[in-house]
Give the backbone structure.
Amino acid sequence: MATIRTPSTAILLITLALTGAARAEINGEAIRIGVLTDMNGVFATAMGPGSVEAARMAAEEFGGKINGKPIEILQADHQNKPDLAASLARKWFSDGVQAIADGGSSGAALAVQELVRGNGKIFLVSGAGANQLTDEACAPSSVQWTQDAYSTATAVVSGIMQTSKEPWFFITGDYAFGHSIEATARERIVALGGKVAGSVKAQLGTPDFSSFLLQAQSSGAKILAINVAGDNATALKQAEEFGLADQGIKIVPMSFQNVDIEAVGLKATRGDLIVTSFFEDVSPAARKFSDAFYARRKAMPSQIQAGVYSAVRHYLQAVKDTGSDDSATVMAKMKATPVSDAYTPNGRIREDQRMVHDLYLVQVKTPQESRGPWDFVKLVATIPPEQAFRPLDRSKCSLIGK
């Protein structure tokens, strides 16, 4: 039987069609994504210009435009200062930037997250790992993409304590991510029957770790956790010079990356267990992306830079799929769509705005095992998302259940 439409029904259908068309529209003159990061400081090698390049690579996969609107990748240096990060983000948003990627250090990222909580803009956090970003400070338009303190610390401690219950000592960076790593690691150590002999805090950019290493020596600890992201290379080189490994102290780098191994060398890091969310030989797609990145940067991508690529790519795909740059519309599509790319084959965005995915426990190769430049690690175990990330029932995120 044919459907009979009354005039009022026809008007309603036209109204709904027009409303949907208005929603599904890229309103800006361009799709602007700002990469806000540490461009010249201690985190610049793991983030910085490499993160900008990774975002550009994602944009190029869409031909540099969506629905005729050009994709513009902007960049800015927040110098790891939360107030500057918030100021730069506020200026970008007033200039039509729809999304910010990377975020850099945790203090800066937390400041930007407070801003997007109020204006609903998209924030794709790859650089910052503080637990608060998807815990008590979670925001509906912000996603923590790569690392975080809970997953990193839990996996590292669990891996080490399979073979040793000796006491730990922490040299911890005196900033949000460092505090999160140590707090999570302490909780796991105690849960597994271990103990912590002591801890010291180091300011970001510390050039001399001698006094901290002496305290570790005198503490009686047999496991030294180097927890100073940004200063890992300096601390590890000095630990090697002190001969701590020869004294029976196991050096455990927390939140360590391939760029840190490159800076320190295989001799000082050989045998170390590291948790990472990405390395170039984890899949053919990862290798292809990494080789393309290397051709541009003459360095392999860090997990953070690979995460920037993935986050920006997923955001742009949602813009393309919805035909809209409305933040709520795009975020809803991002959460409904699995993440499958060179960074991860099986990611998804949870209720707490954490993008969950596999993590990898890897071991640093010896110089004899390495086949050449940047061939640093071998896979020990794949950690599935349900084991890697903080369970939702332990989260303080107010978005859960909504």
Notes: Residues 1-22 have pLDDT under 50 and may be disordered. The chain has two domains: 31-147+282-357, 150-278+359-388. The chain has 14 helices and 15 strands.
